[in-house]
Design goal:
By secondary structure, the chain is α/β, with parallel strands linked by helices. It has two domains: 207 residues, Spore Coat Polysaccharide Biosynthesis Protein SpsA, Chain A, CATH 3.90.550.10; 81 residues, no CATH class. It is 42% helix and 18% strand. The protein is globular, with a radius of gyration of 20 Å. This is Glycosyltransferase involved in cell wall biosynthesis.
C-alpha cells in the first residue's frame, strides 16, 4: 500500500528538516514525499538539498509555486500524488516512530474507511506536552459530522489522518479559507464517507508563535467563509444544515476568547454579542458572561 505524503511549506525551513527526517526514519518504505513550497524566501531549498544528501536513497518531489496559501499548495501536491492514500503534514510537525506502519495496518483492517486518524501530542515552546488521544467514531456519518464540527472528536487534525486518494476527486482544500481549512476539509469527508479512529498517537504538533493556528487576523479573515464552506445546502441534508447556527455561535465564541486573551476587549465584546444574537441561550454560559463583564473593567 503506497502512501503519498504532501507537505506544504512557507518560510518554515527551520522546521522542515525535522519534519522530513521523521518521515524518512519510519519503518515502512512504500511511500512518496511531495513538498510544495508556497513561495518561500528563506532557506527552504537549502534544507531540501541538505536532507536529500543525508538520505540519498529517499526521493523528494519538490514543487515551487507563487505564494497562494496552504490549501492551494496541498491541492497541487495531491494532484501529483500516486499513492492509494494521502497523508497531509504541516512542515512544522513530525511523525512519531512507527506511525506509518500503524496507520497502514489500520487501513488494511478497515477497507471500508476512506478516512483514518489517530491521536497527537502537542508541545509548546516551553516544552509542555499535552496528549490528545483519538475519539472513537460510529457508523452514522451525520453524527460523526455533528460531533466533529462541535469539537467533540479529538485527534483528527492536519497530520493525523490518512485519506483515500479518490476522496480528493470530489473534495479539495478550500483556497478561500485562511485558517481552519482542515476543519472544512475533514467535515466534508466525514459527512460523505466512513471513518475510523486508530488508538494511540502518530504525530507531534509543535506549538509556536509563528503558527497560523494562533493568527487572530487570519481567523477573522476566514470568518463566514469557513461556515459557508462547511454548510453548503446543495451538499448537506436539512438535518446537517441544522447545525449551522450552533457552529457559527461557537466560531464567534472562539474569536471572543482569542481577542479576550490578547486584551482586545472591544473586539471581544463584539463577538460575544454576535454569539448571543445567534443563540440567546449563550448568555447563561457563565464562563463567557464573566469574561464579557470583566472586559469592561480592563
Amino acid at each position: 500500500m503506497k502512501i503519498s505524503f504532501v507537505i506544504p511549506t512557507y518560510n518554515y525551513g527551520n522546521f522542515l528538516e525535522r519534519c522530513l527526517a521523521s518521515v524518512f526514519q519510519q519503518d515502512y518504505g512504500d511511500y512518496e514525499v511531495i513538498v510544495v513550497d508556497d513561495g518561500s524566501t528563506d532557506n527552504t531549498i537549502d534544507v531540501i538539498s541538505r536532507i536529500q544528501q543525508q538520505y540519498p536513497e529517499k526521493k523528494i518531489d519538490y514543487i515551487f509555486q507563487k505564494n497562494a496559501g496552504p490549501s492551494v499548495a496541498r491541492n497541487n501536491g495531491v494532484a501529483k500524488a500516486a499513492g492509494e492514500y494521502v497523508w497531509c503534514l504541516d512542515a512544522d510537525d513530525q511523525l512519531i516512530d512507527g506511525a506509518v506502519r500503524k496507520m497502514v495496518r489500520a487501513a488494511e483492517i478497515n477497507p471500508q474507511a476512506w478516512l483514518l486518524f489517530s491521536g497527537f501530542q502537542a508541545i509548546n515552546e516551553k516544552g509542555k506536552i499535552v496528549k490528545r488521544p483519538p475519539s472513537p467514531l460510529g457508523n452514522d456519518r451525520t453524527e460523526n459530522f455533528r460531533r466533529y464540527i462541535l469539537k467533540k472528536v479529538k485527534g483528527l487534525c492536519m497530520g493525523t489522518a490518512l485519506v483515500r486518494r479518490e476522496a480528493f476527486d470530489l473534495i479539495r482544500f478550500p483556497s478561500e479559507v485562511a485558517v481552519n481549512e482542515d476543519v472544512v476539509f475533514y467535515s466534508k469527508v466525514l459527512v460523505r464517507y466512513q471513518a475510523v479512529s486508530v488508538s494511540g498517537f502518530v504525530l507531534t504538533v509543535n506549538r509556536h508563535k509563528g503558527s497560523q493556528r494562533y493568527n487572530i487576523a487570519k481567523m477573522q479573515e476566514a470568518g463566514l467563509n469557513t461556515v459557508d464552506n462547511i454548510f453548503n445546502k446543495n451538499l448537506l441534508t436539512a438535518e446537517q444544515m441544522g447545525y449551522r447556527s450552533l457552529y457559527l455561535t461557537r466560531w464567534y465564541l472562539t474569536l471572543f476568547r482569542a481577542h479576550f486573551r490578547n486584551r482586545r476587549f472591544k473586539e471581544a465584546r463584539g463577538y460575544y454579542k454576535q454569539a448571543v444574537k445567534e443563540r440567546p441561550i449563550i448568555v447563561f454560559r457563565l464562563s463567557y458572561l464573566r469574561k464579557y463583564l470583566r472586559s469592561f473593567r480592563k
